Amino acid sequence: MSIFRQIRSDWIAHQRDWSRHGFWALMVYRFGNWRYGIRPRALRMPFSFAYRVLHFISISLCGIELPCEVKLGDRFVIEHVGGIVISGDAVFGEDCVIRNGVTVGLRHRGQRGSPCIGDRVDIGAGAKLLGPIRIGNDVAIGANAVVLCDVPDGCVAVGIPARILSRRSHDVPTVEAGMEDLVLR
């Protein structure tokens, strides 16, 4: 897919809103990927310098560290910005959403291996996904969860360290089941 089609897809995924910081961070990411296609190193050097400057600005203004080495699927959405750190060897599937304060990266310094995230994964604010783990398709990661182990398809990960829950209706409490706790006495 060409860089212009990717940017258009990112723009649509961000509700066609040019002012969304996540969209601008993705444009810098796409530019960084595109420059690798320039084969003569001498011609690529000015684009690499421009990418480094834009990447620094993206980190400084948006609070999003998204290196161009990350593998992103289509329709990746950065819902809220600030404090987002993604390791360069992380992999994301299609239709993923991340929010502010998310870290996707290494579990220990000096050890390679970042998470591999499936399709349609929704990552809550402040969540940390660390180490060489696999996150399945159709997974929800709760806010502030610390995920250190694999998460199967169709599950929810919540807590510190994260517990894995099924998304089946009998496993997830309903609003009605907990209403007596919400009544003010």
From TrEMBL:
Keyword Acyltransferase applies: yes
UniProt KW keywords: Acyltransferase, Repeat, Transferase
Reactions it catalyzes: L-serine + acetyl-CoA = O-acetyl-L-serine + CoA
Enzyme Commission numbers on file: 2.3.1.30
GO biological process, alphabetically ordered: cysteine biosynthetic process from serine
Secretion signal, residue range per the UniProt entry: none
Enzyme class: transferase
Keyword rRNA-binding: no
UniProt similarity note: Belongs to the transferase hexapeptide repeat family.
Protein name: Serine acetyltransferase
Organism: Bryocella elongata
